[in-house]
Prior knowledge:
The protein is α/β, with parallel strands linked by helices. The chain is about 30% helix and about 20% strand. It has helices at about 60-65, 90-95, 110-115, 120-125, 140-155, 170-175, 190-195, 200-215, 230-245, 260-265, 280-295; strands at about 1-10, 20-25, 45-50, 70, 80, 100-105, 105-110, 130-135, 155-160, 180-185, 220-225, 250-255, 300. It has 2 domains: about 1-45 and about 105-300, TIM Barrel (Alpha-Beta Barrel); about 45-105, Alpha-Beta Plaits.
Amino acid sequence: MTGRIFDIQRFSTHDGPGIRTTLFLKGCPLRCAWCHNPEGIGPNRHLSFSPEKCVACGDCCGVCPNRVHRLEAATAAHTLARERCQLCGVCADTCVAGALEMVGRDISVAEALAEVLADRDFYGPSGGGMTLSGGEPLQQFDFSAALLRAAKEQGIHCCVETSGFAPWRHFESLLGLVHLFLYDYKETDPQRHKQYTGVSNELVLENLHKLYARGERIALRCPIIPGCNDQEDHFEGIAALARKMPAIEGIDLLPYHPLGRGKLERLGIAEASAAANPPDQATIQRWVDWFADRGVAVRCRHATGRIRS
């Protein structure tokens, strides 16, 4: 049993309670305009190129079997013919400057569990554990389920960050294996949800209500993107869910960060990106205050200063 991941983040403090080891799985059914992990959208590996790191040594030109790389004689500018790239990774293995990197690798359940267990001394005392993120972990359901079962046998606290867009049978199969679902709630209006993510929010809401009815622990994660979903009807939708689900673990507002734009360029991915700017602290405070004035406690990952909750 193997899965494909694109990163393992250690000492994570934002992906569930305590200190956590987070595995990021490739593959996602959504195409969010503000995605900050575009390398997790598709299931295949990617070649990442950071031109600012290139030292123009030319080693990649010599080893690439498909002549993907070229150095301009006059300027030493490094260009890629990605249409010829077969993603063999030889160039990345040769690049001592780290300008070229293969994103995505296959890993077995046993190997993944060993990575998580290696950090146990760090996350154990904090009440942390393992988090599966992505991408969408349920896109690789068999691997995720097998890893969660293996982690349960080791007594590891497990979180799954999910878009909610997956068959209910997958969620149902994970009951008893997941201690906390970090559940994305991106947009209340169905038409805007499809516009910004490519899919309807009907299945997302249906699965959310089913998980809550089963008594599962859930924390809502709400990315807020200026000019897209920072609208009062969406805030009202979040508040309405909070009232319907009083036992929910918490609501996290996640202000937009343009991290994904640079990644799209490095990966050569032709995905549209939201034309938004990160909100300033005053705007973030207004969002938090809006919910507080309506009796809804929210948390904000990036906020600083006085935050009402």
